[in-house]
Amino acid sequence: MTGHHADAAPADTAPAVASSAVPDPADAPWWTRAVVYQIYPRSFADGDGDGFGDLAGIASKLDHLAELGVDVIWLSPIYPSPQHDNGYDIADYQDIDPRFGTLEEFDALLAAAHERGMKLIMDLVVNHTSDEHAWFLDSRSSRAADKRDWYIWRDPRPGFTGGTPGAEPTNWRSFFSGPAWQWDEATGQYFLRLFAPQQPDLNWDNPDVRRAVYAMMRWWLDRGVDGFRMDVINLISKGEYVDVEPVTSSMPLGAEQYANGPRVHEYLSEMHREVFAGRDAELMTVGETPGTPLEHAQLYTDPTRAEVDMIFQFEHVGLDHGKGGKWDPATLDLRHLKANLARWQDGLFGRGWNSLYLNNHDQPRLVSRFGDDGQGLLEQGDVDGAERVRYASATAWAAVLHLQCGTPFIYQGEEFGMTNVPFGGIEDFADVEAVNHYTEAVQQQGADPRDVLAALRLMTRDNARTPVQWDDSVHGGFSAASDRPDVTPWMPVNPNYATINAAADRASRRSIFRFYQRLIALRHTDDVVAFGRFDLLEPDHEQLFAYTRTLGDRVLLVTANLSGRPCPLPSSCRPATARPVLTNVPDDAAGEADPAVLQPWEVRVVAVPAGVPDAGAGV
Ligand code: ISL
Fold this sequence. Notes:
- This protein is α/β, with parallel strands linked by helices.
- It has helices at 55-60, 62-68, 103-115, 134-139, 207-223, 255-258, 264-276, 294-301, 334-348, 366-369, 375-379, 383-402, 432-444, 449-459, 502-507, 512-525, 527-531, and strands spanning 36-39, 72-75, 119-124, 153-154, 181-184, 189-192, 227-230, 284-288, 310-312, 321-322, 325-329, 355-356, 407-411, 533-537, 544-551, 554-561, 567-568, 579-583, 597-598, 603-608.
- The protein folds into three domains: 35-127 and 203-239 and 251-423 and 460-507, TIM Barrel, CATH 3.20.20; 130-201, Oligo-1,6-glucosidase, domain 2; 526-609, Immunoglobulin-like, CATH 2.60.40.1180.
- It starts with 35 loop residues before the first strand and ends in an 11-residue tail after the last strand.
- 6-O-alpha-D-glucopyranosyl-D-fructose is lined by residues 85, 88, 125, 175, 195, 231-232, 288, 290, 326, 361-362, 433, 461.
């Protein structure tokens, strides 16, 4: 274990990335064929009837997940927490929050998942802790405290009085609005907190912090968990604590000092040695890495460097942000998205590994954001039309994502097309990020509340956090207390639960769930899906997302019309001979298909005999 800064190899002297060969299916790690399902526990299923999701609720839905066919469950944080950021503020890493259950229930859940052939990974939030964690309580108790240096304490800016505007040690901003520094009156210093005031950043440059984190991780692995999703793991190594120039970026001011900071690759290699070495074949790790360019992703995921298996990149989910960032939403240009995803497909092929996602607990719902959730048609009274576009657009996007090279992640409710939420005023929003942004923009900067709310409705993380709609009973079947009028879910269920729910979807001739089942099965059974090379077709086309996957002499052609208008297929996408593999046209409507035109939101996947599709030899 590297204990001293002087021993460290800075990232820019790290060895160049070894470009290994195309993955060999015969000895590829298990997670290259896996699909992951993310659970946000407070909103997944409420087993004890208190309006708050829990482990008992999760246990009751394992069969739904097993039937879907997923290989791995990722649990968002379930540790004891004051819940200022829904559990991403952890007060004790080695226990379960009583709202969710007990360690015994956790062990039973893990065993039940394993019995069904599913693995389970934990959310590891170690860039910061809760301000109620024992480490921080000690750290803030006095300047001489044992653990003072476990967090990042700095004096006020020279010449300023601590706690007054402008006295913060640097001009860095928080991810959740306002300054990134929190004044502590008792000890007369600021501490760094890149997120909420209750989420102080750990000082990873202190080897005792790292040792404590690694010991905690081993404790979970010894308990049987199958790996970790690592929250903002690319932010753990801070650079210089200096003022920075304002830049237009989707990251807060200051991020260039700590995003993919000077020692981050050293720390992840060390973590691998200390925690995973010798047992990593059965495990998987995925780093969440906002603000990470491809060049760093190649370092993080190169198997020969042994850092993490894959990362979540953020470039593609920033393409509908305007100049003002996520609260300045812009229309997505499909060409930009295709170019971006193709760049990541090429950039990690044979040298690292992609994760594939279009939504999670921090993002709006996929079908509302990129597809058509049918809201417009519903307002015109066209219930069937609304259902049709929601099904077709959800499945088209799913296919386009899942048939790329990488490990796909499904977010709870995505598998049956849950939508964004019709939020009204600010009182409807629960998320600290949304509330802080509203307060800052409206109360401090004088923005028009109507504009701020309009952007919030589109982009807020709350869209993803309402209770899962299991059926059409009270509260969408989320809570075991559905017959008790005095208990309501912690966040109201989306009012569309009577029509959009898991049970209705599974009974429908247009079932999004069944389509996901087929996508997952394809990845499991067809090595072209898992390992084939990705080649984008028609990059300049504004409606069509088309690509091939090639492995040896096998070629899969994916063509998707990601628009609400018919799309004539260019000749490059019409091979002379092709075997149908998958489509989102329901069986009883298949006869009407025009081979030369993709209907709105239609996706077709075909196998073509060899080489590139036979351009020009159209049907
Ligand atoms: O969602 C975001 C803002 O729009 C992101 O910037 C997000 O805050 C960032 O991706 C980090 O996310 C992770 O860490 C946060 C937590 O709030 C998120 O839920 C988590 O996924 C702090 O732990």
